[in-house]
């Protein structure tokens, strides 16, 4: 099972790089990155809506509306911000520098969240995680430093 999860994550990482490269191409042919973001979001919306309708019919639409809360739009806003920042970075810094900074920042915030949510802290696990984070941040700095 862990091999399947690893393969899924590797495929998703490659897909994000391909997505961003394609979105940079779209952005270069339109007047604003907002058009690119709208196309990206619309494609996802249509695909997900089709899958929901195929799986649950109109009842799925009702359930989706019933699940809406005042904070439900935040994940979409955060996702759109991530995609916008990625496109901006790819255009100005290139893929490697953008990815290195994004991954390093995700790891640092992810570690902080895991530490906060942990019911108990294993000192050896914490130290190895922190060492890995330091190495990843150092690598990100080396990859991106020529741009800053």
TrEMBL record:
Lineage, highest ranks first: Bacteria, Pseudomonadati, Pseudomonadota, Gammaproteobacteria, Pseudomonadales
Record's keyword annotation contains rRNA processing: no
Statement: the UniProt record of this protein carries the keyword S-adenosyl-L-methionine: no
Name by which UniProt lists this protein: DMT family transporter
Keyword entries, A-Z: Membrane, Transmembrane, Transmembrane helix
Pfam family, one: DMT_YdcZ
Spans through the membrane: 34-58, 70-88, 94-113, 125-144
Organism: Pseudomonas vanderleydeniana
GO cellular component: plasma membrane
